[in-house]
């Protein structure tokens, strides 16, 4: 179940990023993350903390609830 949630949130980050015409590298830079970490986050391979999700949401200009609108 946890893995499924990670994958769904990661997919949602990717969808929002693409809607906003940002590359993975651009979003990673806005978050001050390595691109490889952003890739793991989007693929569901990383179990993000709430503070990490907050950073990503601020970089994307969305409320955190948007990550959970599947």
Structure overview:
By secondary structure, this protein is an all-alpha fold. It has helices spanning 2-19, 24-31, 35-43, 50-60. It has a single domain (2-68), classed as Orthogonal Bundle (434 Repressor (Amino-terminal Domain)), CATH 1.10.260. Helix content is 66%, strand content 0%.
Attribute tags:
70 residues; mainly alpha; 434 Repressor (Amino-terminal Domain); 4 helices; globular
**What is the H-and-E element order?**
HHHH
What number of domains?
1
Q: Kindly state the number of beta strands.
A: 0
What CATH architecture label applies?
Orthogonal Bundle
Sheet with the most strands, sense and barrel status: none
State the end-to-end distance: 15 Å
What's the overall geometry? Answer: globular
Structural class: mainly alpha
The CATH homologous superfamily corresponds to lambda repressor-like DNA-binding domains
Q: What proportion of the residues form beta strands (DSSP E)?
A: under 5%
Outline:
The chain is mostly helical and 70 residues long. It is built from 4 helices and no strands.
């Amino acid at each position: 179940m946890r893995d499924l949630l990670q994958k769904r949130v990661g997919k949602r980050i990717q969808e929002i990023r693409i809607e906003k015409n940002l590359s993975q590298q651009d979003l990673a830079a806005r978050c001050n993350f390595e691109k490889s970490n952003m890739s793991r986050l989007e693929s569901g391979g990383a179990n993000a903390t709430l503070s990490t999700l907050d950073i990503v949401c601020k970089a994307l200009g969305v409320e955190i609830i948007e990550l959970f609108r599947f």
